[in-house]
Amino acid sequence: VKVVVVVVAVVVVVVVVVAVVVIVVVLVVVTVVVEVVVVVVVVELNNACRILTRQLRPTPLPLLYRTAEIAPPNIRKQTHGSTEKHKQETDLRSPLFDHSYPRARLK
Q1: Torsion-angle region of 54 (φ positive above 0: left; ψ -120 to 50: alpha; else: beta)
Q2: How many domains is the chain built from?
Q3: Could you give the CA distance from residue 25 to residue 74 in angstroms, rounded to a whole number?
């Protein structure tokens, strides 16, 4: 009976370890895919701006965005983040509405 319990415990541990490894591999693959997609989107945005503004490849990106009359990606990202934070704090339907954040532990 003790041998069976030990074997079952070992099998459970092996299954858990395999599951954790699979989850880690999936997360790594998803992260790589997301990074590739983001790079492709930014490249396509730059190409679209170049086509619309008729600018050549050597044109610096900040000037390209200014000529196309759109905000640079870092400003758009910051604006989107602050908008989402505002929604989370004020929208009753948000799952994070009235959520109390933990205190910072590091100084």
Answers
A1: left
A2: 1
A3: 30
Residues 49-103 have pLDDT tens digits of 888 888 888 888 888 888 888 888 888 889 999 998 898 888 888 888 888 778 8
Q: What is 42-104 written as a DSSP string? A: HHHHHHHHHHHHT--TTS-HHHHHHHHT---HHHHHHHHHHHHHHHHHH-TTSTTTTPPPPPP
Whether residue 8 is contained in a domain is answered as no
Gap between the Cα atoms of 99 and 107, Å rounded: 22
Q: Which amino acid is at 57?
A: R
In a domain, 85, yes or no: no
Structure tokens at 11: 């099998």
Sign of CA dihedral 28, 37, 46, 66: negative
Distance separating alpha carbons of residues 101 and 98, to the nearest angstrom: 9
Structure tokens at 78: 């910051």
Residue 45 sits in which domain range?
Answer: 35-74
pTM, 2 dp: 0.48
